[in-house]
Amino acid sequence: MSTSNLNPHIALLPSAGMGHLTPFIRLIPLLTSHNVKITVITPHPTLSISESESLSELFTSFPQVTRKQLHLPLPPLDDEPSSKSQDPFYNRFEVIRRSSHLLSPLLSSLTPPLSALITDMSLASTVIPITNSLQLPNYIFFTSSAKMLSLFLSFHALDDPKAKDFIEISGFEPIPKSWIPPPLLDDANNAMKIYFTECGKKMKESSGILVNTYESIEGESLKAFNSLPPVIAIGPLPPIKFERNQSLAWLDDQPAESVLYVSFGSRTAISREQIKALADGLVKSGKRFLWVVKDKKVDRDDETELVDLIGEELMERVKEKGMVVKNWLNQEEVLSHPAVGWFLSHCGWNSLTEAIWHGVPMLLWPQHGDQKINADLVERIGVGMWVKSWGWGDSVVVVKGDEIADTVREMTGNELFRLRAAQVQDDARKAFGEGGSSYDRLNDLIDSWKCSP
Ligand code: UDP
Ligand code: UDP
Q1: Quick one: which of 398, 397, 393, 356 has its CA closest to 371?
Q2: Closest CA to 210 of 7, 448, 24
Q3: Which of 5, 49, 48, 42 lies closest to 24 in space, CA to CA?
Q4: Which H or E element spans position 211?
Q5: DSSP assigned state of 99
Q6: Which of 34, 79, 101, 120 is catalytic?
Q7: How far apart are CA 422 and CA 248, in angstroms?
Q8: How many angstroms does the Cα of residue 267 sit away from the middle of ligand 1?
Q9: C-beta of residue 248 within 8 angstroms of C-beta of residue 334
Q10: Distance CA 148, CA 271 (A)
Q11: Pocket residues: Cβ below 6 A from ligand 1
């Protein structure tokens, strides 16, 4: 006989990096507004300062949310250099994965007893055995697109993906090999390949897979997942407005929809040569721009002065029409600012869904990971332009300033992108609004927790 539990208790376990933390944070007000009690388990210490600050804001703004820290043994991975990645965030995934055994006592000690755990996809293979032994439902939050999820779930079973030009996944459109994250095609093992392969396989044992996407953008992919566990599209999750003292004074002085916002996300550094060429291109485009420069993947290592990166002469030219910063800007506030007209993006899934949410058309410049697969989705719905010859961010070829300038002018001169972005924004907000597809899925999920014994 089933009983009801009007105040289910759900624990959230995010992984490393803002792109993995932010969607978890965005779930919180949606759950608390339905009387769900929340505990957030935070791997400690965080790799980046931005994660640490974001968590502080979260716990200040939501005092009813319980915080539990998962203390990580550092320094990481010295024992097995062969499994290390060039990317400190993938290495941190691996450290958190190896600390999963610490979860069992933590999860069992929470009161009232948990109804379910929601775990980041990068931790699925090490956390599912623990929740299985505790008989605790475990939902995996996949923080990228549904199309990327199809690759994640199938990759472990693919027969020599390097040997083919297209990756065939039953039910889905083939994916060109050139869009597959390069570490997955390496012969050597690396932290990304390990988590991708092991978690993709194990995730099939989860209670459900949550994805920050929605039907009108990825309906075809969502329909193609036809075996268990259920794939539950709950996005695009709306940004949360924390109290901030961010000064956007420069933007406030610019005309409406006149500024190109340029950012490569929270964890992507571009080469110094490419930084100079991009500066040159932005200046030559003649457009106004707001550019967040990143020289290092991890923010706490990013210490070089802007002028030393760009050079004094170019810096003077940049200042004529542009604003360049090296600090963290709250992107959701930037994208919602009336002066922002376009977004040059590295195609992180959060960045793309935020731009869609705010109706901002995009120039797509995927750098690594899932970003080419994401770029294709945005290009298809007519909201962005992708110059495929620019390649991955760490390719040896530097895209020249003149080419960047021409592309920026072409993209910003095409009003069709803006018209389409307004329509897509409307669809996205409908999906998440009352009666929308994602709204219904999330409510059904919460109701299922309330009906569980
Ligand atoms: N972000 C931000 N300010 C910055 C850089 C990034 O607010 O200067 C936020 C951005 O809005 C997004 C997240 O950090 O929510 C980055 O996630 P995404 O998936 O776009 O890319 P990643 O950083 O994981 O590559
Ligand atoms: N940190 C920092 N600047 C901040 C917040 C944190 O440099 O604004 C550093 C902090 O010194 C620590 C790491 O980030 O080494 C982890 O921060 P967390 O908040 O997880 O730990 P705490 O500061 O609470 O000990």
Answers
A1: 393
A2: 24
A3: 42
A4: strand 208-211
A5: T
A6: 120
A7: 24
A8: 8
A9: yes
A10: 26
A11: 17-19, 22, 263, 265-268, 292, 328-332, 348-351, 354
Q: Which of 290, 279, 278 is CA-nearest to residue 318?
A: 279
Nearest residue to 357 (alpha-carbon basis) of 26, 25, 12: 26
Between CA 51 and CA 22 the distance in angstroms is 9
Tokens of 327: 């600090």
Q: What ipTM does the predicted assembly reach?
A: 0.86
Q: What is the dihedral of CA 78, 83, 84, 87, to 10 degrees?
A: -150
User: Torsions phi, psi of 34, nearest 5?
Assistant: -105, 25
Token pair in block for residue 391 = 């390649």
- Neighbouring residues of 428: CB distance < 8 A, sequence distance ≥ 6: 214, 216, 217, 236, 353, 356, 357
Least Cα distance to 15 among 49, 36, 44 occurs for 44
| CB burial readout 122-133, b (16+ within 10 A) else e | bbbbbbbbbbee
Tell which residue, 205, 111, 83, 184, has the closest CA to residue 392. Answer: 184
pTM reported for the whole predicted model = 0.92
Query: By the 8 A CB rule, do 361 and 421 touch?
Result: yes
Find tokens 């929270």 and name the residue: 266
Ligand number, closest to the Cα atom of 57:
2
CB of 57 closer than 6 angstroms to any ligand 2 atom: no
Per-residue pLDDT of the chain (453 residues; tens, 9 = 90+): 446 788 999 999 999 999 999 999 999 999 999 999 999 999 999 999 999 999 999 999 999 999 999 999 866 555 555 567 778 898 899 999 999 999 999 999 999 999 999 999 999 999 999 999 999 999 999 999 999 999 999 999 998 899 999 999 999 999 999 999 999 999 888 889 999 999 999 999 999 999 999 999 999 999 999 889 999 999 999 998 776 656 789 999 999 999 999 999 999 999 999 999 999 999 999 999 999 999 999 898 888 999 999 999 999 999 999 999 999 999 999 999 999 999 999 999 999 999 999 999 999 999 999 999 999 999 999 999 999 999 998 777 899 999 999 999 999 999 999 999 999 999 999 999 999 999 999 999 999 999 976
CA atoms within 13 A on the CB side of 431: 25
Instruction: Quote the tokens at residue 231.
Output: 């794939």
Q: From 141, 172, 138, 130, select the one nearest 155 (Cα to Cα).
A: 172
